[in-house]
Amino acid sequence: MSFFSRFALVLLLLLTARPAFALNVLGVYRAACDRVMGVVVRVERRDVHLLTLSGELVSIPRHEIVSLTYYPVPSLPISSIKLGASFPVFRVKALQGKQIVDLVEGWPIDYSEEKISFLQRDGKDLVINRDSIWSLELVPSAEQLAVATPAADGLDYAHPQASGFCEGEESAEGRRQVFPQQFLNDEVVIKRELDRLQEGYEKVEKYSHDQLFYALPEIYRNETSLGLWLSTGSRHGANDRRNNLTPLLTDELSYGPFGYQHVIMTGSAPNRLLIHEEPQTQIYYAFKAAYFHASVFFDPNLVLVGGKYMWRYSDFSTNDANDRWVESFLIELGFDIGNVSLQLVPVSVASIGMGGKVGYRAVDQNLWRLGPRFVHRRFQADITAGTTPGGGDRFAYARANLDVPVTSRTTVGWSGIYRSVSGQKSYDWQTTQYDSAVERAYHSSTLISAFRVRSLLGRRAAVEANLSIERASGTLDGAARSQTSTFVKGGLSGSFRF
What is the mean predicted confidence (pLDDT) over 345-354? Predict the structure, then answer.
């Protein structure tokens, strides 16, 4: 046969071939020719529950199954589905634009790592992506009518060649014989297949239970990004001995909707947990699993620059009275239910420096705090606050965050920060050398208002910018005057996702 003849034959076959079917009818063999036809709607540790072509539910013990055959069909050829209360309908909703809409109603019958196939009430199947699931609802199932199309109803299911000795009826006029696309007759292979279906169903069922603890199906996505923050006016996150010009690598992982998720960040970036709004070099890890979430923050500059990390007289010598705060280690944890979360920061190792031209001193303090968080698809808001116990220097602090997605690609946000210091009279003030001759007290209050915007550019790039205004008022014994200062700070970031 010449090349052109072969090409014409292949083209003819492609043009006349029937479209591929997405739904598989299973032939479950309990003996050589004892076959039950239907769709597996649930697999348990001991039993396989099969919806037969007559619409009835049949339970078959797993140890009785000797082989499985798969027949591709366009839809399930039955007139009614009778599953009962033990097999509820899964109603899956999706987020379309800013509206939540019904995506599919039916029973999950097949699974892959990224997709789920549902048998709908009309007997057809629909394949959806797992990451398109917004919520699931279990609806009690009663007898539901199914539409049997002529293409699906006029089929005869042939036995596989390995069971060729089984008697089968000849196809009547107007009916078409369907041959098995796959045949499993090995015990180990059959067990693996049934285990896969069991695990798939249990995972979807778990979605419906665990969604109670998730305001959003996925907080983090399976993506990695690399970017860089450029900032000006930093007073807390960086100084002349520790900079924040470090590339930011962000790695997000999600095991699907309503599952374990985490993010790892290394580099310089703002962090909404900190008591200041500036970019700071960090190693940051956060995860969420069911009703629990936790975060850990660490500034590697504490190790890299050693003793130079702490505040010095040069950080205060150009002012009459001001203070600076930096956190080097932080642990945050909390509990989630629905849209509401409780945030608790039991450990936050901070170095607080205060002073002016006449001297300074630094205090190491644990800035514990707590507060609520509310997450909705239209916005996210949280606030944390705390204060140190009395008996010495007293610090009070609070931070509120608000983020609103204005479009699917752009999010704007605001943070408000309050800090106050009531420093007791003390002798341990320093200039370039330690000076214990003069007793001084320090008092201050600070308000910060920070604005930010983040926007996606195309499929891979993103830009982010922030602008903040810090207004600080302080008094220091022995200073020429009290001081009220306004600091304007800004930052710009670009990143690429891959």
Answer: 95
Q: In this structure, are residues 234 and 489 in contact, taking their beta carbons and an 8 Å threshold?
A: yes
The last residue of one of the domains, among 178, 213, 248, is 213
Q: Domain of 69: which CATH number?
A: 2.30.30.520
pLDDT tens by residue, 150-174: 445 677 888 887 666 676 655 556 6
Q: Which residues contact 73 (CB under 8 A, 6 or more apart)?
A: 21, 23, 24, 25, 152, 155, 178
Burial annotation 157-172 (CB, 10 A radius, 16+ → b, else e): bbbbeebeeeeeeeee
- pLDDT of the residue at 371: 97
Tell me the C-alpha distance between 167 and 482, whole Å.
102
Q: What is the domain extent for residue 421?
A: 223-497
**Number of domains into which the chain is organized:** 2
Q: How many helices (DSSP H) and strands (DSSP E) are in the chain?
A: 4, 32
The SS3 of residue 307 is: helix
Same domain assignment for residues 185 and 105: yes
Does residue 5 belong to any structural domain of this protein?
no
> Is 222 or 17 the better-scoring residue by pLDDT?
222
Instruction: With 0.90 as the threshold, say if the pTM is over it.
Output: no
